[in-house]
Design brief:
single chain, 948 residues, alpha/beta, eight-stranded mixed beta sheet, seven-stranded mixed beta sheet, 31 helices, 24 strands
């Protein structure tokens, strides 16, 4: 600053600006004038220096054009012209100023109304008849229609150069951004791919933006803009209203539009009449916009970032250029509104024009007022403190003749003398960046967005890796992806949403995979009909089985056959009974390796769905079977298994019901065969148990079979050889060394009890048939029910036995004897699409193993208990009712749980003893030695099971 006065005034401005950082001090209109008229030009130069200094300090400054204006305008109209361009953010400094540019929507709306009012197309439409008359009312409606047409043509914005249109487009689109986000979020609720949600949000924004810019129409949601809400609710314009509604509601667009249209016409009429109203409305709109631009309680915390108030400079305020009228209007609006705004005005006034700032006769000054200090810096602070302290009283017309919001600063001649250049001083401004600017800025938002997006992507990928059906934010947590044997993953859990286990199969579209997908679709369709047509008359049964396979042994035979039986039972029930059956599918993984996870998912879902009454399946005995049964016991769910032959489960758990003959029962039945073999071989008959090594697997079935098979051989009097256990590596049994040990030992066994799985019998036969010690010997192999899944060459399958080796195995389903007393095969040909109208027999492919029949009978038994009396039962009632189940005419005979004791083995299971041997034609032929259908408790005898 080149003068002492400039240095002192700049100090005072900086002091006031620093107070603005922490509070909202009242901002005066600082009027600088010289004590001597000869120094008026120096005051103007001082105002220019102050403006340049504030720009360097980062203050948003605007300089009102005080040059003479063309045209014959009165001082009030000239004052309004000074404010026209202040609605352009470029007039308030460049982008180097703190935070983003100002926006002036309210000032722009007032200017748009002024331009529409002054439009030549509007002149002939103003009403000529007096108001309140019929002609006057008609003319008023026509004038309002024309005014709205002109405003729509202007987009309710002031006319601007074409290079500003892009910014206006962006400003209009901003209001549609939340709706685009809402559209994207709504799309996400359906769990689509992430790009579909993004396209949905962008598409909605583009559609709204296109409709918003239809030529000749008002913008969409005009009444929801902030300037429109201010326009309708400010009390300053109530005098112009004619008792019109000012209600603005999102869900009432017609009423809101009528309110803003009526208000626009009323204000336009008042502006057409002229006077001080247009000028004060411009001032009020400017103040409201600046107050909004510095609002602290805003989404972007802009009030905390803009720590310096805006400053408007009037280089030479005079009556001719409207400056004096502008100062008067500012003081009048502030006095009327009694609200603080951040605008600081610095004006230079000629010494002879200061009297124009008086508004009336002077009142008597208060007595005992202290004399002002002698030095200018102290006088400046004293004048400001006195002005701020008396502000409320000075607003009263009788208090003083000066305008209350004007702080006059007379500058003495000596303070305006230019200093030597070496004495010029720069008033420093404190530039401490606000915390909000650092924490809540574009860079921090971008950083947070980047972190959120990264976390979202990582979370989405984690969801996709963990769950079978996952979107960007959510996932179906009833199914999970778990490691599959041999590599890859498989989908396990209970399919309650849009999960399809068939869609996760790694195999092709042929064979059991195709059949499983077809069955899954059929069950889903039937469930949809049940829920849609009988919402209050159905029960839900969960089938839990192996609905996926390992890459090393991609077999889905068991899962596909069991699921066919469950679906068949569902169709029969829903076609013939009042209470309908809904079936949910649960996958325990390949060989039920993840059945514990599946049980947890079933129990969790049952807590949410009271229609779930029980579980069918879990047909494989594993180390986790006790935990699975216990977890479902805690959930109150009974289990009816068709093929799990565990002896210990019904003894340990009251919720376990099984149609499969227990392992101990099977071993006793095979003992009838062993007894006859012992008699044929004589006293020196040797036997051994060859079992799978289960140390590194979950299999428990083979251990149980080995235990009861060994006990049986001891009871039947065989000379026992040391038991052997073989390992399974990469899905294949390692039997070569065991075959050599068996066949080249001192004693070659005549009977081998094979406690293994069906997939291991082929390699065993191959090894025994090539070993010299066994190739020429008659050897009998006894084994459990897992061999019932084999398809021997005599029936078109690939499985077989070696020459001179006879295989005896148990099976769980006696189908031949029960076939004449059941409608199972007729129902199958009627309801299973691939068997439509075909004749089906008990020994047909897909039925001979008995797994379809057993799962069908299990489902029918559980349904009977859940629908007793043609009324849907609770799961606890179903559990109790199961001990009263007795169903005749089932696929395996009579299902009878009435004699099942608690914590003990029941009797009456279906059982078959088969013999498989090589024929003269070189094929392996299976035959039934003896059997019992389900429901029969008569034990088998040696005579019935004769091997002679």
């Amino acid at each position: 600053m080149s003068t002492e006065a400039g240095i002192d005034v700049q100090h005072q401005l900086e002091s006031l600006i620093q107070d603005f950082r922490t509070s909202d001090p009242p901002m005066p209109v600082i009027v600088l004038h010289a004590e001597d008229a000869a120094d008026d030009d120096r005051v103007t130069e001082l105002v220019d220096e102050l403006s340049e200094g504030q720009q360097r300090h980062g203050t948003r400054t605007a300089v009102a054009p005080t040059e003479p204006q063309p045209g014959d305008l009165d001082p009030t109209a000239r004052a309004a012209r000074l404010l026209w361009d202040l609605g352009d953010s470029r007039k308030w400094g460049d982008r180097s100023a703190a935070y983003r540019p100002y926006s002036f929507p309210r000032l722009g709306l007032v200017r748009a109304l002024q331009e529409a009012t002054d439009d030549p197309d509007m002149r002939e439409h103003w009403p000529a008849a007096p108001g309140g008359t019929p002609d006057g009312n008609v003319q008023r409606e026509q004038a309002q229609t024309q005014l709205l047409r002109i405003l729509a043509r202007q987009r309710w914005r002031p006319r601007r150069p074409s290079r500003r249109n892009r910014q206006l487009l962006l400003n209009d689109v901003q209001q549609f951004l939340p709706m685009g986000v809402l559209g994207a979020f709504t799309a996400l609720l359906t769990r689509p791919e992430w790009y579909i949600a993004v396209l949905a949000g962008i598409g909605l924004m583009v559609l709204l933006a296109g409709l918003n810019h239809v030529p000749g129409r008002a913008p969409l949601f005009l009444w929801l803009r902030r300037e429109s809400r201010w326009f309708l609710t400010t009390t300053f314009l109530q005098s112009a209203a004619r008792r019109q509604s000012t209600s603005v509601r999102l869900l009432r667009p017609v009423r809101s539009w009528r309110a803003i249209a009526a208000r626009a016409y009323d204000v336009s009429e008042a502006m057409r009449e002229g006077g001080e109203f247009p000028l004060q409305l411009y001032v009020l709109a400017l103040f409201e916009d600046l107050r909004d631009n510095h609002r602290r309680a805003s989404w972007d915390l802009r009030g905390f970032k803009r720590t310096r108030p805006p400053v408007l400079f009037l280089r030479r305020a005079a009556r001719e250029n409207g400056g004096i009228e502008l100062i008067r209007a500012v003081s009048d609006v502030r006095s009327r509104r009694s609200e603080l705004d951040p605008l600081l005005i610095v004006a230079g006034v000629a010494a002879d024009d200061t009297a124009l700032l008086d508004r009336g006769p002077a009142a008597n000054p208060p007595a005992n007022r202290p004399a002002p200090p002698s030095r200018l810096p102290q006088r400046l602070r004293h004048w400001y403190d006195e002005w701020a302290g008396n502000l409320r009283a000075d607003q009263s017309p009788s208090r003083t003749n000066a305008l209350p919001w004007v702080l006059r600063i007379p500058l003495p001649h000596g303070e305006l003398d230019q200093l030597r250049q070496s004495d010029w001083r720069c008033v420093r401004a404190r530039h401490r960046p606000p915390v909000a600017r650092v924490v809540w800025s574009v860079h921090s938002v971008l950083l947070v967005l980047a972190l959120v997006v990264t976390a979202g992507v990582v979370h989405a990928r984690e969801l996709d890796r963990t769950y079978c059906s996952a979107g960007l934010l959510t996932a179906d947590r009833d199914t999970e992806k778990r490691p599959a044997p041999g590599g890859g993953t498989e989908c396990v859990g209970i399919a309650t949403g849009d999960v399809r286990f068939g869609a996760h199969l790694t195999g092709g579209t042929a064979g059991e995979g195709k059949r499983l997908r077809e069955l899954e679709s059929l069950v889903r369709a039937e469930n949809g009909r049940v829920v849609r047509d009988h919402p209050d008359a159905y029960v839900t049964v969960v089938y839990a089985g192996p609905l996926s396979s390992a890459s090393a042994d991609p077999s889905l035979v068991k899962g596909a056959e069991e699921l066919a039986g469950v679906y068949l039972a569902q169709r029969v029930v829903n076609e013939n009974y009042t209470v309908k059956l809904r079936v949910l599918l649960a996958n325990g993984g390949s060989d039920m390796g993840h059945q514990k996870v599946t049980a947890e998912a079933i129990a969790a879902y049952a807590d949410r769905d009271p229609t779930v009454v029980g579980v069918v399946g879990f047909g494989r005995d594993l180390q986790s079977s006790p935990d699975v049964t216990r977890r479902l016991l805690e959930a109150g769910l009974p289990i009816v298994s068709g093929t799990n032959s565990a002896t210990y489960l019904p003894k340990d758990f009251s919720n376990w019901f099984s149609l499969a003959a227990p392992d101990e029962h099977q071993a006793r039945a095979l003992g009838l065969i062993a007894r006859q073999l012992r008699t044929q071989r004589g006293k020196a008959a040797h036997a051994l148990v060859l079992a799978r090594d289960t140390k590194e697997s979950q299999d428990r079935y083979t251990s149980e079979q080995a235990l009861y098979g060994g006990e049986m051989l001891d009871r039947e009097g065989f000379e026992p050889l040391p038991a052997q256990r073989y390992r399974v590596a990469n899905g294949k049994p390692e039997l070569r060394q065991h075959a050599e040990s068996i066949c080249r030992g001192e004693h070659v066994p005549s009977v081998i009890y094979f406690a293994g799985r069906v997939e291991d019998i082929g390699p065993l036969m191959t090894q025994l048939s090539t070993e010299p010690g066994c190739a020429n010997r008659q050897i009998s192999i006894l084994t459990g029910d897992d061999l019932s899944k084999a398809r021997f060459s005599g029936t078109g399958g690939r499985d077989g036995v070696a020459p001179r080796i006879t295989l005896y195995h148990a099976a769980l389903a006696e189908l031949k004897e029960a076939a004449s007393r059941t409608a199972f095969y007729e129902d199958a040909s009627h309801y299973l699409p691939w068997l439509k109208d075909d004749r089906v027999t008990y020994d047909a492919a897909g039925f001979a193993s008995g797994q379809t029949a057993l799962s069908h009978d299990s489902t029918r038994a559980l349904y009977w208990a859940a629908s007793l009396g043609d009324v849907p039962q609770s799961r606890s009632a179903t559990w109790v009712n199961l001990r009263n189940v007795k169903l005749d005419g089932m696929a395996t005979g009579t299902i009878d749980f009435t004699g099942a004791p608690l914590y003990a083995e029941r009797h009456g299971h279906s059982i078959v003893l088969n013999r498989v041997r090589r024929t003269a034609e070189g094929v392996s032929q299976a035959e039934v030695l003896c059997s019992r259908p389900a429901g029969s408790t008569k034990p088998l005898s040696v005579k019935e099971c004769s091997i002679a």
